[in-house]
Design a protein that fits this description.
Number of helices: 5
Number of strands: 2
Radius of gyration: 18 Å
Shape: elongated
Helix content: 25-40%
Strand order of the largest sheet: 1-2
Structural class: alpha+beta
Distance between the termini: 37 Å
Oligomer: single chain
């Protein structure tokens, strides 16, 4: 997975386990996902990488679409001004804080 993903978090790297090992008689192994807490199952958030297609919308994206601030089907990518964690992904507090600011002051305006 380290070769396929850019700076994967340990949660992603440790998300798989071998359910059934291959034997001399049965040359098939079964690999499965560990169950995640709430909606964090790797089987859900890695679906686009496994089967192809686009990823699921994030909560902030659904928030913006529901309020008519962003067209459906668009995705958010962090700008250079966004604070990133050590895995170069945006910090969770950044999203929740911006969502509250958008709802209160209408800080985001589509171009």
């Amino acid at each position: 997975m380290r070769d396929s993903f850019f700076n994967p978090k340990p949660w992603t790297l440790n998300s798989l386990f071998v359910r059934q090992y291959a034997t001399k008689e049965e040359l098939t192994a079964v690999v499965d996902f560990k169950d995640g807490a709430k909606d964090r199952s790797a089987g859900k958030y890695l679906t686009a990488q496994i089967y192809g297609g686009s990823r699921r919308a994030k909560g902030i994206e659904a928030f913006l679409v529901a309020r008519g601030l962003m067209p459906a089907g668009y995705r958010i990518v962090p700008s250079d001004a966004v604070r990133l964690d050590r895995f170069r992904q945006y910090h969770a507090g950044c999203v929740s804080g911006n969502g509250a600011r958008i709802e209160r002051r209408d800080a985001f305006r589509p171009a």
